[in-house]
Amino acid sequence: MGTKTAASEAVINGGFSKFALSGELLSALEKAGYAEPTPVQAGVIPRALESVDVVGQARTGTGKTAAFAIPILEKLEVKRGKRPPRALVLVPTRELAVQVRDEFAKLSIDSKHKSVAIYGGKPIRGQVESLRDGVDVVVGTPGRVIDHIRRRTMQTESMEVVVLDEADRMLDIGFRPDIERILRVCPTERQTLLLSATLAPPIRRLAERYMKNPEVLDFSTNSLDHDTIDQYYFTVDETKKFPLLLRLLAREKPAQAIVFCRTKRRVDKVTKRLQKKTRFAGCLHGDMEQRARDRMMARFRSGELRFLIATDIVGRGIDVTNISHIVNYDIPEFCDDYVHRVGRTGRMGREGIAFSFVNPEQGHELTRIEQRINRLLKRDSIPGFYLTHDEERAGRGGEGEGDIEEKPAPPEPPNSRRKRYRRAL
C-alpha cells in the first residue's frame, strides 16, 4: 500500500459542486451548512466516487463521516419499498453508531435514502422491523451486526460499500474476529473504505487482506499536536484533584467541558461530588443502560448539561460543537487515548483548551504523552491554591474552592475564550 499525503494536495476551493454531485445532495449539504469540504473530504470523496478502495488516516473532528457518507449517498440508486441494505458502516461504539446514522439522515433529507443504526443495549425487535421494512444504509457495531447476520434478519448479499470507521479503535477493543467474519459474508465485488486515526500493522494487514489495491490517503500531518488546542498540565496530589477541578471550572467558565476519568467507579464518585456544586453535571460510562446513555448524550448535545464526566467511551467519535474544554482528571493509560480525548475540543479547526491532572509520581507518563504528540505541555497553576502537600507545608498558595455558575454559560467565540484564559494566567 503506497501512501499519499493528501492533506497538502487537497484543493478545497470551489465548494462541493466540483464533485458533480446530484442536486438533492447539494441541497442537503447547503441545508446542513456545509460550504467548503475539509481536506479529508476533498481527498476521499472523489476517489470514493470512482469506486476506489480507500484507506484514510485521519483523526476525529476532521469531517471524515461526511467524507464517506457523501459518496455512498451519491452512488446508491434511490429505491422504495422492501429492499436489502446496500451499504454497511461498522463503528466501535453505540454512540458513534447513532451519530453516523444521524449524519446520513441529514444528508439524505432530499434524496430520501433510508438509514438505520443497529447496536447492543436496545431491544433487537425494533431493529429487525426496520431492516424488514427496507433500508439503504446500515450503521452498526460489529457485535450486533453479527447477531443480525446469524438471525438472518439482515442480508449482506447486496452490499455495494462497506466502511470501517475508527478501525483502530475497533481492533483495540477486540472486534477483529467479528469484522473479518462480516467482511467474508459480504460480496467480494464491493467497495471498502477504511478510516483510522493510526495505521498500525494490524490495520495494514486487515486492509491488505480484505481490500482491493487500496489507495492510502494520509491526512494525519500535524494532526497529533492539535494546533488549535492549548494544552496544559497541573502537578497535583491525588487528594487535591477534586478541589482543583472546582477551582479550574470556576476560573475557566467553560461553555461545555468533558472531564475524563480512567474508571467507571471514579466517574460516579466525581459526578456525585460535582452535582453537589452544580445541577449541570452528568456522567457517561459503559455500565449505564443504553437508554440512560442516550438521554445523557441528548442533554449534553442540547446544552442542558455543561459538564460531562466520562470514561474513554466518549474519547472517540463524539462530536459536540460547544465543547471548549477537556479535563483529564486522570491521565489515560495509553498515549493514543490522550490524543482522542483532547480531540473532543478543537473540532473542525476551532480552538479549545485541555488540562491534565498529573500526580507527582506520574512524570514519566506525562513524558510519554509529550513524546507521542511531539509537543511539551505547559505547566499551569492557580494562585492561592495548594496543588501538593509539599506546597502546603512550605506555605505557598492557599486553599479554597471556586464557585461554579448555576446557569448554563452561553457559547463564547473561541478567540474570546483563549484571550480570557491568557488574562487569567
Can you tell me about this structure?
The protein is α/β, with parallel strands linked by helices and 425 residues long. It folds into 2 domains: 216 residues, P-loop containing nucleotide triphosphate hydrolases (Rossmann fold), CATH 3.40.50; 196 residues, Rossmann fold (3-Layer(aba) Sandwich). Helices cover 40% and strands 16% of the residues. An 8-stranded parallel β-sheet has the order 1-8-2-7-6-3-5-4, sandwiched between helices. Strands 11-12-10-13-14-9-15 form a 7-stranded parallel β-sheet, sandwiched between helices. Helix 13 links the parallel strand 11 and strand 12. Helix 3 runs parallel beside helix 4, helix 4 packs across helix 5 and helix 14 crosses helix 15. The protein is elongated and about 70 Å long. It starts with a strand and ends with a helix. The C terminus is likely disordered.
Summary, kept brief:
With 425 residues, this protein is α/β, with parallel strands linked by helices.
Write out key terms for the chains shown.
alpha/beta, Rossmann fold, 425 residues, disordered C terminus, 15 strands, 2 domains
Q: Structural class of the helices, strands and pairings?
A: alpha/beta
Looking at the overall shape, the CATH architecture of the largest domain is 3-Layer(aba) Sandwich
The CATH first-level class of the largest domain comes to Alpha Beta
Major beta sheet, strand line-up: 1-8-2-7-6-3-5-4
Could you name the ranges where pLDDT drops below 50 across 5 or more consecutive residues?
Answer: 5-13, 412-425
Number of domains: 2
CATH superfamily of the largest domain: P-loop containing nucleotide triphosphate hydrolases
Q: Any idea of the CATH topology of the largest domain?
A: Rossmann fold
Spatial gap, N to C terminus:
48 Å
What's the overall geometry?
Answer: elongated
How much of the residues is beta strand, in percent?
15-25%
Report the C-alpha radius of gyration, rounded: 22 Å
Largest sheet: 8 strands, parallel
Q: Average pLDDT, to the nearest integer?
A: 85
Indicate the percent of residues in helices.
Answer: 25-40%
Helix count equals: 17
User: Total strand count, please?
Assistant: 15
